[in-house]
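[Structure tokenization] protein backbone as discrete codes
[Encoding] learned vocabulary of local backbone shapes
[Protein] chain in single-letter code, fold in tokens
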Amino acid sequence: MTNIKIALELGAKKLKNSSPTPMLDAEILLCLVLNKNRLDLINIENKTLTNDQHLKFMSSIIRRSNFEPIAYITKQKEFWSKNIHTNKNTLIPRPETEVLVDMTLTFLKNKKRPTFLDLGAGTGCISIALASEIKHIKGVAIDNCNKTLKICKQNLIHNKLSDRVIVKKRDILNNKFTQKFDLLISNPPYLREREFINICKSIKYFEPKNTLVADKYEGLKYLHFIIKNYRNNLKKNGILALEIGNYQFKKVGFMLKNYRFRLLKSFNLINNDIRCIIATKI
């Protein structure tokens, strides 16, 4: 029989070679087993785990030690203070995408009844953040995978937003929309094949490759298509919000200029690479 404090220490030790945050991961996984939050663990650290609880905890520790992402083990990821259901069919929501959402709000807040098109919705995290923040907004979220769309719909229903966001099965690279929107927003695939080969194991072995890799060479296939082919789906003074990859800003900037967009705002990572951009059509 093992108490909580010792179980956490053992779990963290097993994760030291597979996670940059072994103790945090162990705490999250034990909270999942016990249905507690992390603050609770401090007050019950001397409590003994049952055999069943210990087995479940160690099973999740083994999964994490094999580089499986925490979000897939817990089946959820926090985004915009919402618990977003995730599984192996969805890209795990990331903090940079929260930044992208935040950047758009400044440009939407004065519009009376704004509309948006979420290109490559995945879990629906972007649509959920926008719809929860702007009560009178309505949108369309598209993805080309039925299993992913199922998760997206579940998340919208769970957050009571399914009445304001329509989910459709569409391929980003096949634009059939005639409707115009105030916002086009996307975190599209933008990695090059060689970047994926060298990426960390938790992403490489578990997250869906097609949500990450755009092409073999520059990673610009989706970005170029969106900028070129969705321009007419923006209303006057509408905005385009995109996540882009490392070292892509210069070429994306050229595309924006070529297809008559004006850059309004960008977000720099710690290494000064630009990850998020906001533009408007001229």
